[in-house]
Structure formats: C-alpha cells, structure tokens
Here is the input.
Amino acid sequence: MTQEKEHLHFVTVLGSLRKASYNGIVARTLPALAPDGITISALGSIADFPHYNQDVQEQGFPASVLTMGEQIRVADGVIIVTPEYNYSVPGVLKNALDWLSRLTPQPFARKPVALQTVSPGMIGGARAQYHIRQSMVFMDALVLNRPEVMISQAADKFDTDKLELTDEKTRAFLTRQIQALADMVHREQK
Here is the structure.
C-alpha cells in the first residue's frame, strides 16, 4: 500500500482564449477555492499550439506541447475548464488534446481529471463535457464522474466588469468538486 501525499497540486487547462470569458474567470478563481492541502495553477495557453499536423509532429513536437505535457504528467490532477461551441468542444481545445494525445509516455494516462463548463445557456456546456470524455478515454485518463460542474445561466453568476465569479453557491460547488478530485487522487494512490 502506498502512502497518500499530504499536499496535492492540480493544473488547469483553459479551453477559451477570450480574456473576459466566463470560463477564464472560473479557472482563475479555482486557486482561491482550493481546500487546505491543495494548490492549483494554470498551464500555458493552448493558443501557443500550432494546428495539429502529423508532418509537423514528425519534425519534432512544439516546445509548448512538450512543456504542457510534462506539467500534466507531474501534476496530481487536471481540471479542464471550457466553453461549449456549437454543441461540442472548442476547436482550440480539441487541437490541444490532439497534440497531447500523441505524446509518449501519455501525460493523461491514469491521471484524475475534472471537467468544468460555463455557458450562458440552460445546460451549462454538457455536450462539450461528453465529447471531452470521449477523448479522455483514448488517453486513458480517469475522469471524475461526480459532482459534474456545468454552470448554466452564467450572466447571473459573474461580474464581467470585475471579472469575478460572484455566485456563492457556485463557488461552494466548485470547492466540492476540487475536494472530490482530491479524494479520487487519494483512492488511486492506494
């Protein structure tokens, strides 16, 4: 039996490039919501990844891909925060996942992953989450099933002038999911 780590470190992958995006606000809020013993830091921007092309890969992986892959590999868990575009995953996030899926060893293999989506609509990005789950199966990630974070009707929960998540129930729910991801990590370490 292995011993649980006293301190856990999670990283966030942000699927939005827009500075004032609701999802970006959530990702930047997560470190302050982390329970004791957990730190959360943002990975670099997926905007730095070129369009996936096997010809480019054969010339060598871009430094941005290698760096993010290594940061994911050494993290205890990953939180993917993303909008939903056209009932699916934003192209920039899918592109990043495609690049990361080609790395060996696979950085997501057996890695606990939590998904979070934010949307102005009623279902909070559920379709994007289901499509991300499909990609995560290919990469052998361990996706947290519950609690699912799908923040709907975002306009009522954020102050976009201050770029803050203002809804206390949502903040508390995010903290519960972070704790659930930590519990998952501890179960996997046993």
User: Anything to note?
Assistant: The two ends are 6 Å apart (CA to CA). The chain is about 40% helix and 20% strand.
